[in-house]
Amino acid sequence: MAETNRNKWVVLALLTLVYTFSFIDRQLLVILAEPVKADLGLSDTQLGLLTGLAFAALYVTLGLPIARLADKGNRKNVVSASLAIWSAMTVISGMAANFTHMLLARIGVGIGEAGGSPPSHSIISDYFKPEKRATALSIYSVGIYIGIFLGFTIGGVLAQNYGWRVAFYAVGLPGILLAVLIYYFVKEPVKGRYDPQGVSTVTPTLSNVIKTLLGKKTFIYIALGSGFIAFGSYGAGNFLPSFLQRVHGVEVSKAGYLLGMAFGIGGGIGTFLGGFMADRLRLSDMRWYIWLPMIAAILALIPFGVYVFSSHLNVVVGMVFLVSALLGVYLGPAIAVTHSLVSARMRAFASAVLFLVLNIIGLGFGPLTIGLVSDVLQPEYGDLSLRGAFCCIFLSQSLAILFFALASRTYLRDLKDTTP
What we know:
Blueprint: H1 2-31, H2 33-40, H3 44-72, H4 75-93, H5 99-113, H6 117-127, H7 133-141, H8 143-162, H9 164-185, H10 206-214, H11 217-237, H12 240-247, H13 252-281, H14 288-309, H15 313-327, H16 331-340, H17 347-364, H18 366-381, H19 385-389, H20 392-416
Helix pairs in contact: 1-4, 1-6, 1-7, 1-8, 1-9, 3-5, 3-17, 3-18, 4-5, 4-6, 4-9, 6-17, 7-13, 7-16, 8-9, 8-13, 11-16, 11-17, 11-18, 11-20, 12-13, 13-14, 13-15, 14-15, 14-20
């Protein structure tokens, strides 16, 4: 038993490292946005497309068939192959000579990353008992913020000293080596190992899985609420390096360091505490898995407004830290709620559907919307156009709060009706 307990933490650490690499690769273009924009002659709309919809389109759509494959077969192999693909495409991103080349490379990164998270979520749910899943999934989700921290800090330094192309090469190549480690050192667990005895070991049909998910109002509300939180996180986050450079006159390496610290530490703390606290509060009421992210989203509105309109750099960075911590709370509980509503052999697909909604709304349309609005405002407001564009996020955050509130009203009923 002690060996099993140690092994599950090793597996969690390795999968978290994979998730870290996915966000290093994903966010690298964010911190490099200004030098890439200047070199390739891009607009803010094109930047929003490259850092958002171009990546998200295939990332979320291919996530569904890949997750279905993972539910039927070996999930560890899917993760390993996906990591190798997106790391290779990150290297190719450094070779782009124009917008079209970069667009195709980022689509390639999205194709690879489609097979990362859903199979990993499913593996983790079979290594950890239900009462510990939100904690484990939140630890895994901290990889987002470690990746953002490393992507921003390393990317900024490399870009300033060696050029933005070298940054892509330096980040992509180690990911290929990690893919080999995952293949050899992660053991595929038994599907549904902690489910009640007598649960079917037959993988449900695709129509049954979709019918189950759509029949749970809680899942629909949680997915939409997560999507609108992600709209704000990605919409503002993908333009914050440009915001610091244009509005506050910060050079690229310093912007990377400041935002890496604020996002990486703040978001990591919030993400871990979200799952950790929810797993403990659930003892009094399961709805704390939803109430906790909802309360955090409400509290985040004030520091967000401060950093958008403050003229003091230190205040801006401090408020980014607070917003990142508060908006990181939702992810572990959202995944745990999703997994609690389906059987073991639906979990990878359920995660893929959750991430489809989350990333289409958040990653797909968040940066693109901010870029479009910024371009519209630029003739009148110049470098301050991003400040006005960020105001869209007040609306998306309010919608997120509404959907979490609706989810809290249906969760206990949907949970009671769930067949393991």
